[in-house]
Amino acid sequence: MTDTSRDDGETAAPVDERDGPESTTVDGGSTPDGGVETSTPGIEDPQDPTPDPPEGTAVGDEGDDAGDSPTTAILVALGLGVLGPLIAVVGSFGIFALEFATGGLPQVVSLALTLIVGQYIAFAGLALVYLRWRGFDRSGIISYLGVRWPTPFELGVVVVGWVTILVTVIGISFVVQLLGAEPAANQSAEVAMANPALIPLLIVAMFLVVGPCEEILYRGVVQGRLRETLPAAPSIIIASAVFALIHVVALTGGIEGRLVTVAVLFFPSLVFGIVYEYTENIVVPSLLHGLHNAVIFTLLYVSIAFADEIEELAEMLALPLPF
Fold first, then answer.
1. Residue 117, number of CB atoms within 10 A of its CB
2. What's the distance, CA 106 to chain centroid?
3. Which of 74, 121, 213, 281 has the maximum number of C-beta atoms within 10 A of its C-beta?
4. Is the pLDDT of residue 56 over 90?
5. Residue 323 in domain
6. In b/e form, how buried is each residue of 50-77, taking b as 16+ CB within 10 angstroms?
């Protein structure tokens, strides 16, 4: 993000677009969650035809305003990070009730409802409602999140990020095997293994639903809110830890296995956060997240469809599969 701490005394340093629309602040007010509010009551620039921003429009001050403390930012970020999965869990009960009342839904319909409730509403919906509550309009939300078409260079960042995640996950998996730890299973993976016909749909959903929705909340809003008052490193670490921990609800097995899996997930999450910080474009980590998940589901599909061939090849090469 843009560093607003440097000032040569002649010109004001630029304000990071993620922290909200630019405006002059004279009263030091704050938004409902402790962020900085901009308002200039009774003062208008006759040479500026642009009307004053609506009351409550947020703008970041990189922590210079006493009303927006790091503690407030951390609490808000943690609250949003936990609230998303809670909404998803509550919504899942509604889907179960619907399935019970109808005597069972087709697998595709059940999957679609799960994605709509658990992703579009619980994650992306929560993020957008929060930003609207802070006073951002449509253009302000786009600016805050950094929504734009990725450049060829940013697409290259996606590829580099994915290779980094791949190497990291393989290395961590090797260490986990040496320690004899058993990671927990993911519920989505179990559903895919039981219904291989759904895997192609899940692969598409990783790019169109899961990647964008989870990144909008955990990188765009959670990490973005932390960056209003904290440096990049702690913001990325906290957001990544929250993102990894919330996956506990999507895992099956004992507590030890769940903790192992959460620890593994923390490292790809770090890469998502670093990529977002570097590009300031939410589309880039969304594509990276989708690619990472899609590759895993593709390998899962291949392992099911060509189980015998893979087993023979593995025995011949004496090499374990990376995932």
1. 19
2. 29
3. 213
4. no
5. no
6. eebbeebbbbbbbbebeebeeebbbebb
Residue listed under structure tokens 């579009």: 120
Residue 104 domain-assigned (yes or no) = yes
Query: 71: left (phi > 0), else alpha (psi -120 to 50), else beta?
Result: alpha
C-alpha angle 226/222/136, rounded to 5°?
90
Residue 91 structure tokens: 């919504």
CB atoms within 10 A of CB 191: 16
Q: What is the pLDDT of residues 8-32, one digit of tens each?
A: 444 444 445 455 444 434 444 556 6
**Does the residue 210 lie in any domain?**
yes
d(CA 196, CA 174): 27
Q: What angle do CA 38, 214, 224 make, to 5 degrees?
A: 30
Dmax over CA atoms of the chain, in Å, equals 79
- The DSSP secondary-structure symbol of 51 reads P
Distances, alpha carbon 73 to alpha carbons 3, 33, 60, in Å = 18, 8, 11
Residue 4 structure tokens? 């607003």
CB 37 within 8 Å of CB 20: no
Q: Where are the alpha helices (DSSP H) in the chain?
A: 70-102, 107-115, 126-133, 138-145, 152-179, 187-194, 199-205, 211-215, 224-227, 232-245, 255-279, 283-305, 307-317
Which one-letter amino acid corresponds to residue 249? V
Domain ranges, residue 243? 70-317
Torsion of the alpha carbons at 115, 118, 124 and 127, rounded to the nearest 10:
180
Q: How many domains does the chain have?
A: 1
Q: 270 or 44: which carries more pLDDT confidence?
A: 270
**296 domain residue, yes or no:** yes
Give the model confidence (pLDDT) of 97-135 as tens digits. 999 999 989 989 999 999 999 999 999 999 999 999 999
